[in-house]
Amino acid sequence: MNKTLRLVFLASLVLNLLLLGVLLGRLPLGAGEPLSRRQRLEQELKKLSEPAQSHIREKFQTIRAAGDPLRPQLDEARTEALRIFSSEPFDEAAYDQQIKKIDSLRGEMFRRMDQAVKQATKELSVDERSKFADVLRRPSPPSN
Predict the structure, then answer these.
(1) Based on the number of CB atoms within 10 Å of its own CB, is 39 exposed (0-12), middle (13-18) or buried (19 or more)?
(2) Would you identify the CATH topology of the domain 47-136?
(3) For residue range 101-119, what is the model confidence (pLDDT) as tens digits?
(4) What are phi and psi of 114, to 5 degrees?
(5) Per-residue pLDDT tens digits for 52-86
(6) How crowded is residue 68: how many other Cβ atoms within 10 Å of its Cβ?
(7) 52: how many CB neighbours lie within 10 A of its CB?
(8) How many CB atoms lie within 10 A of CB 121?
(9) Domain-by-domain residue ranges, the chain?
(10) E strands present in 14-94
(11) Which long-range contacts link 92-101 to residues 24+ away (Cβ below 8 Å)?
């Protein structure tokens, strides 16, 4: 191969790799993966009228706010459990105590959120409650 042909071949190879990179970069991330809870929520909410969408979004913010104060404590408890887990020697009693604390915090967070759901549900119309239930329902597992 002469020098010009090699340069043309090399330039073609580089351009083809760039084109491949651009095409792959435009593919959606996570293609084929199930939707996240937030994405599913947005899809379900789009089926409702704008006032109902706003009302239910407001209720979800209230529900999330009910659990938010405990999230930093829960993160801290998880960090401590991992510290205990990785320390030498392994303190089984301290680890068990930390796991109980995590379970207790989770339980309290879900109790607060459940109360917020109950309160939010009382304020919705029958149709909005039905749509709200559809949003809260977990999707069925994909069939293989």
Answers:
(1) exposed
(2) Four Helix Bundle (Hemerythrin (Met), subunit A) (1.20.120)
(3) 989 988 888 888 788 777 7
(4) -60, -40
(5) 777 777 777 877 777 788 888 888 998 988 888 88
(6) 13
(7) 17
(8) 14
(9) 1-28, 47-136
(10) none
(11) 101/77
